[in-house]
Automatic annotation (TrEMBL):
<keyword id="KW-0813">Transport</keyword>
<feature type="transmembrane region" description="Helical">
    <location>
        <begin position="89"/>
        <end position="106"/>
    </location>
</feature>
<dbReference type="InterPro" id="IPR037185">
    <property type="entry name" value="EmrE-like"/>
</dbReference>
<feature type="transmembrane region" description="Helical">
    <location>
        <begin position="58"/>
        <end position="80"/>
    </location>
</feature>
<keyword id="KW-1133">Transmembrane helix</keyword>
<keyword id="KW-0472">Membrane</keyword>
<feature type="transmembrane region" description="Helical">
    <location>
        <begin position="31"/>
        <end position="52"/>
    </location>
</feature>
<comment type="similarity">
    <text>Belongs to the drug/metabolite transporter (DMT) superfamily. Small multidrug resistance (SMR) (TC 2.A.7.1) family.</text>
</comment>
<dbReference type="InterPro" id="IPR045324">
    <property type="entry name" value="Small_multidrug_res"/>
</dbReference>
<dbReference type="Pfam" id="PF00893">
    <property type="entry name" value="Multi_Drug_Res"/>
</dbReference>
<protein>
    <submittedName>
        <fullName>DMT family transporter</fullName>
    </submittedName>
</protein>
<keyword id="KW-0812">Transmembrane</keyword>
<feature type="transmembrane region" description="Helical">
    <location>
        <begin position="6"/>
        <end position="24"/>
    </location>
</feature>
<keyword id="KW-1003">Cell membrane</keyword>
<dbReference type="InterPro" id="IPR000390">
    <property type="entry name" value="Small_drug/metabolite_transptr"/>
</dbReference>
Length: 108
């Protein structure tokens, strides 16, 4: 089961790369960023498929998208200078709470 969580972690990293790359590619008009974006989505799908061999799809997919979204927002703020507002922080807290809850229920 530990390997599945590692695959999920890798899937999340690739998901963040994909999302940030999709923004930076300017509609796939920038070649190298577009290629990185494509690697991100292929890697994300590949590793989530490996993780879901052992994890429940409801848990694995939800954590993948939730943590991927959080990472995208954090790195979007750092790289693209996007604002993180109080309402966004409250929503982040809700996502984190859901991820922690799902992780704790994964073995149940």
């Amino acid at each position: 089961m530990t390997v599945a969580w590692f695959y999920l972690f890798l899937a999340i990293v690739f998901e963040i790369v994909f999302a940030l790359g999709a923004s930076a590619s300017k509609g796939f008009t920038r070649l190298w960023i577009s290629l990185v974006t494509l690697v991100g989505i292929v890697g994300g799908i590949y590793f989530i498929s490996l993780a879901l061999r052992d994890l429940d799809v409801g848990v694995g997919y939800t954590i993948w998208t939730g943590v991927g979204a959080l990472g995208t927002v954090v790195f979007g703020a750092l790289i693209f200078k996007e604002k993180i507002t109080t309402p966004k922080l409250l929503c982040f807290a809700a996502i984190i709470g859901g991820v922690v809850g799902l992780k704790s229920l994964a073995g149940v």
